């Protein structure tokens, strides 16, 4: 489940199904990129192609209720809830 927000619609929740092989080690950011490229290109999240190694700190979000970096946290459970890291939401998972 992804908590989404934009100025027109306000907050709403959206579910996506992402196929992951059992032994694949994928990050939460990998899931978000799959969604963006294959399911819904309106989903907004921070993406820093040159980082993706927990260096810039900008991909933070609430992942199953805990704050974490989406490029670092492994997607190792069947259901993942993603929320913006704070209340200063620009759109979807992107915050100031
Ligand atoms: S993309 Fe830089 S910390 Fe995640």
TrEMBL record:
Signal peptide annotation: none
Q: From the record, what ranges are coiled-coil? A: none
Q: What residues does the Succinate dehydogenase/fumarate reductase N-terminal domain cover?
A: 2-95
Q: Which Gene3D superfamilies would you find in this protein's record?
A: 3.10.20.30
InterPro entries under this entry? 2Fe-2S_ferredoxin-like_sf, Beta-grasp_dom_sf, SDH/FRD_Iron-Sulfur, Succ_DH/fum_Rdtase_N
GO biological process terms held by the UniProt record: aerobic respiration; respiratory electron transport chain
Mind listing the GO molecular function terms for this protein? electron transfer activity; iron-sulfur cluster binding
Pfam families to which the protein is assigned, alphabetical: Fer2_3
Which cofactors does it use?
[3Fe-4S] cluster; [2Fe-2S] cluster
Q: Which family does it belong to?
A: Belongs to the succinate dehydrogenase/fumarate reductase iron-sulfur protein family.
PANTHER family, per the entry: SUCCINATE DEHYDROGENASE [UBIQUINONE] IRON-SULFUR SUBUNIT, MITOCHONDRIAL, SUCCINATE DEHYDROGENASE IRON-SULFUR PROTEIN
State the name under which the record lists this protein: Succinate dehydogenase/fumarate reductase N-terminal domain-containing protein
């Amino acid at each position: 489940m992804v908590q989404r927000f934009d100025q027109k619609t306000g907050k709403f929740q959206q579910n996506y199904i992402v196929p992951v092989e059992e032994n694949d080690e994928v990050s939460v950011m990998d899931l978000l990129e799959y969604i963006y490229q294959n399911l819904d290109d309106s989903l907004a999240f921070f993406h820093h192609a040159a980082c993706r190694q927990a260096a810039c700190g900008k991909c933070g979000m609430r992942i199953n209720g805990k704050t974490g970096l989406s490029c670092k946290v492994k997607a190792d459970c069947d259901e993942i809830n993603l929320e913006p890291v704070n209340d200063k939401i620009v759109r979807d998972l992107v915050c100031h």
